């Protein structure tokens, strides 16, 4: 079985003929980020190395059989995790789809190739002690002279809302002053999905969480703003 690591990268003529038009399509037409374009190029170069090592590049990409693609995936499992393998195959599937649309290829050997299931990872979380230490970090920074009182209070409030309501950072950043009902102790956030979330109590009790002296009920719902 060929190994991709020691083999040289694609020569300039291969990149000019096969990668550059596709890379321009990703960056200019699909407006993919540089990070995404880089990952697609990594997948293409890895596949090229494997094909060159197996002697399958010279016959042409249209000559690839499903067996060769399965062999590539089996070998790639030894070098990549399942998540990375899925991303590489998705990139190659898009690569072949693009060149089919350009009329340079007639089929996509990655269209229905079977893949191993993704790993089911358990979510990681902070302990109560770690969360208490994190929430106290703005005060420690203030006491050490690393920030002013306003910045410390702002950071503490942001972390309290993130922790208590389970907001995403983008949802927190999207909050406006009018979204906070100080009398009722509620916040209306522009959530991605319609839902209602009720804040639980913080590990530590501070007067900064509202007039009631304990954590706010802080009900989160989809914002009426467009």
Summarize the structure.
Helix content is 47%, strand content 2%. With 226 residues, the protein is mainly alpha-helical.
Shape: elongated
Order of neighbouring strands in the sheet with most strands: 1-2
What is the SS-derived class? mainly alpha
| C-alpha Rg (nearest Å) | 26 Å
Approximately how much beta-strand content do the residues carry?
Answer: under 5%
Separation, N- and C-terminal Cα atoms: 55 Å
Mean pLDDT: 81
Helix run count: 8
Q: Which stretches are poorly predicted, pLDDT < 50 over at least 5 residues?
A: 1-5, 205-217, 222-226
| Helicity, as a percent range | 40-55%
Can you give a write-up of this model?
- The chain folds into two domains: 12-101; 128-209, no CATH class.
- Helix content is 47%, strand content 2%.
- It is built from eight helices and two strands, in the order H-H-H-H-H-H-H-H-E-E.
- The radius of gyration is 26 Å and the shape is elongated.
- The chain starts with 11 loop residues before the first helix and ends in a 39-residue tail after the last strand.
């Amino acid at each position: 079985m060929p190994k991709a690591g020691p083999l040289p990268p694609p020569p300039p003529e291969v990149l000019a003929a096969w990668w550059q038009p596709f890379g321009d399509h990703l960056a200019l037409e699909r407006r993919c980020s540089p990070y995404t374009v880089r990952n697609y190029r990594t997948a293409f170069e890895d596949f090229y190395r494997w094909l060159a090592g197996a002697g399958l590049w010279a016959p042409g990409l249209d000559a690839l059989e499903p067996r060769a693609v399965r062999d590539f995936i089996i070998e790639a499992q030894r070098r990549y995790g399942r998540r990375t393998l899925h991303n590489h195959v998705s990139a190659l599937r898009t690569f072949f789809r693009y060149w089919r649309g350009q009329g340079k290829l007639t089929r996509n050997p990655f269209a229905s190739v079977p893949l191993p299931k993704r790993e089911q990872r358990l979510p990681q979380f902070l302990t109560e002690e770690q969360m208490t230490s994190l929430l106290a970090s703005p005060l420690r920074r203030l006491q050490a002279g690393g920030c002013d009182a306003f910045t410390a209070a702002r950071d503490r409030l942001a972390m309290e809302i993130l922790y208590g309501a389970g907001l995403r950072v983008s949802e927190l950043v999207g909050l406006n002053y009018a979204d906070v009902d100080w009398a009722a102790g509620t916040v209306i956030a522009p959530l991605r999905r319609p839902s209602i979330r009720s804040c639980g109590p913080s590990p530590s009790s501070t007067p900064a969480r509202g007039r009631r002296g304990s954590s706010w009920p802080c009900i989160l719902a989809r914002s009426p703003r467009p």
